[in-house]
């Protein structure tokens, strides 16, 4: 195996484990969109990309995502999403760890929490949490280089440095052998690493090989139908944004062309021949035409008779026998204030980004009413935000894993055991959480009052606790214990 830049956390007997899992099918990730390469070598080398120009197209897509994110409506929708996902508070960090289910001593929990706070500090999440999440949401991927002191790796990470996703890519090098019985190529193992190219990613992956453990890599989890390209959440908005732009541009052109009121001059040319008639018409136009224009750069008014645009008056010749010279008015376009088509594409854009279209109405007042008044779209939006948070939390978990292993708090094998018991909790808007919880409790208590007379006859108390009050076995046990303790404290005779 060639040397990599960066560090690698070794796993025991990894090669033996890979051979046990030999298959004719290459390993596949659900949400990473890793490209496969062959013929690897050295720090700098040339690698044949099995997926063709995937890297180049991904770079182009990232630039497209960044471009449409600057569109006014798209930017407003993205800001709504980011503001909902990352809640900033003066007193609390945007994220925290939940280790209630972790079966470890309090000392280990305390160390894990301290290292997590160190990770948050290295990311400077209190200040740049909004920007980090927005970059991940727009680009669809996020890369950080985990820097350690090679002479003293036990002190953990010393810096996290952001990497432009257009310059780095994760690949998988496949190890294949021929099956002696069938002659088929069998995948007996694979190694994953990153290829960094300072200029840009091209069709041929030429660049610096970086060890997998030295990079933190978080994706949107969205893949194209071929499951080879990572997509951003803005991918669905590409077409609506372009349609909206086109409609807005055409609307401006239509307004300019139809808004002004113009005059039609019918000039009597008698029985003059065609050439003489045209010359006479031009002379009349030059004589009576007054075109004063405003120069926006200098602020001056100047005569610009030599230019004629489509928005000016019409001059038409009229032969002898007509009604003579006549001036009539051509009215401007009507119903110019109707923008139903523009509003349609704006709503379509918001819908493509899973943002409730009601948030488009800037003049609409915010209502702090009952939670039952919250629309179904808002509930769907909240679930969408929770999914985004869950995907984004992989950033903190991966960095925390590296930090804990480097400092010797846990081993690689121990981390695999405790990983599922550690979750990242995002700070929520407390007011709305309280409103929702209060309304939910109010509804449950209302149902409880209605069903109370049937308790002990048709429904057991335990059933009511679990299905009406939605209490778990642990909740029921703790509540009963607390009620008993409070009863003893209230009655002094029971303490004797």
Give an overview in words:
The chain is an alpha+beta fold and 496 residues long. The protein folds into three domains: 14-230 and 392-428, no CATH class; 262-330, no CATH class; 430-496, no CATH class. The protein is built from 15 helices and 17 strands. β4 and β5 form a beta hairpin. The radius of gyration is 35 Å and the shape is extended. The model is unreliable at 39-52 (pLDDT under 50).
Layout of helices and strands:
Blueprint lengths: L13 H7 L14 E4 L5 E6 L4 H15 L3 H14 L9 E4 L7 H18 L1 H15 L1 E8 L8 E7 L4 E11 L6 E12 L8 E7 L3 E5 L2 E2 L6 E2 L6 H21 L3 E9 L3 H15 L3 E3 L6 E3 L10 E6 L6 E5 L9 H13 L23 H17 L1 H13 L5 H7 L4 E4 L3 H22 L9 H7 L5 H18 L1 H4 L1
Parallel strand pairs: 1-6, 12-15
Antiparallel strand pairs: 1-2, 2-8, 3-17, 4-5, 4-9, 6-7, 7-8, 10-11, 12-16, 13-14
Helix pairs in contact: 3-5, 4-5, 4-10, 6-8
Structural class: alpha+beta
Principal-axis shape: extended
- Beta-strand share of residues: 15-25%
Helical segment count:
15
Strand order within the widest sheet? 1-2-8-7-6
- The count of domains is 3
The unreliable regions are 39-52
Radius of gyration, Cα only, in angstroms? 35 Å
Roughly what percent helix?
A: 40-55%
Termini separation comes to 75 Å
The description of the largest β-sheet is: 5 strands, mixed, barrel
Mean pLDDT level: 79
Q: Can you count the beta strands? A: 17
What keyword list fits this structure?
3 domains, 496 residues, five-stranded mixed β-barrel, alpha+beta
Quickly describe the structure.
By secondary structure, the protein is of the alpha+beta class. It is built from 15 helices and 17 strands. Helix 3 (72-85) crosses helix 5 (125-139).
């Amino acid at each position: 195996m060639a040397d990599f830049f960066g560090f690698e956390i070794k796993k025991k007997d990894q090669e033996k484990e890979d051979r046990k899992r030999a298959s004719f099918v290459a390993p596949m990730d659900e949400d990473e969109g890793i490209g496969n390469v062959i013929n690897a070598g050295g720090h700098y080398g040339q690698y044949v990309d099995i997926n063709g120009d995937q890297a180049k197209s991904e770079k182009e897509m990232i630039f497209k995502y960044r471009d449409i994110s600057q569109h006014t409506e798209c930017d407003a929708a993205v800001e709504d999403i980011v503001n909902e996902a990352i809640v900033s508070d003066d007193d609390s960090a945007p994220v925290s760890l939940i280790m209630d289910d972790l079966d470890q001593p309090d000392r280990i929990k305390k160390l894990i929490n301290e290292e997590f706070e160190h990770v948050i500090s290295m990311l400077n999440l209190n200040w740049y949490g909004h920007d980090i999440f927005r970059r991940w949401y727009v680009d669809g991927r996020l890369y950080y280089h985990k820097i350690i002191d090679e002479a003293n790796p036990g002190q953990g990470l010393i810096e996290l440095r952001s990497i432009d996703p257009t310059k780095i890519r994760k690949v998988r090098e496949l190890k294949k052998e021929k099956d002696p019985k069938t002659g088929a190529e069998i995948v007996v193992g694979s190694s994953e690493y990153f290829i960094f190219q300072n200029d840009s990613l091209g069709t041929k992956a030429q660049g610096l090989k970086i060890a997998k453990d030295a990079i933190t890599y978080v994706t949107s989890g969205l893949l194209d139908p071929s499951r080879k390209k990572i997509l951003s959440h803005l991918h669905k908005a590409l077409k609506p944004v372009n349609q909206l732009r086109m409609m807005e541009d055409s609307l401006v052109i239509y307004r300019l062309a139809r808004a002004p009121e113009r005059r039609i001059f019918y000039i009597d040319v008698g029985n003059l021949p065609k050439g003489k008639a045209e010359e006479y018409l031009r002379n009349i136009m030059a004589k009576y035409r007054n075109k004063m224009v405003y120069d926006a750069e200098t602020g001056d008014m100047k005569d610009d008779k030599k230019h004629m645009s489509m928005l000016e008056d019409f001059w038409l010749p009229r032969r002898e026998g007509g009604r003579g010279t006549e001036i009539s008015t051509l009215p401007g376009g009507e119903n110019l204030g109707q923008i139903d088509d523009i509003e349609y594409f704006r709503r379509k854009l918001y819908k493509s980004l899973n943002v409730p279209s009601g948030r488009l109405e800037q003049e609409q007042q915010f209502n702090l009413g009952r939670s039952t008044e919250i629309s179904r779209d808002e509930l769907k939006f909240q679930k969408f935000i929770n999914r985004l948070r869950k995907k984004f939390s992989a950033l903190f978990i991966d960095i925390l894993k590296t930090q804990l292993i480097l400092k010797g708090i846990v081993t690689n094998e121990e981390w695999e055991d405790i990983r599922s018991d550690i979750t990242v909790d995002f700070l929520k808007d407390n007011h709305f959480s309280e409103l929702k919880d209060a309304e939910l409790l109010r509804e449950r208590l209302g149902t409880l009052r209605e069903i109370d007379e049937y308790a002990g006859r048709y429904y057991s108390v335990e059933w009511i606790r679990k299905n009406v009050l939605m209490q778990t076995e642990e909740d029921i046990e703790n509540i009963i214990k607390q009620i008993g303790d409070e009863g003893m404290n209230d009655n002094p005779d029971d303490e004797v």
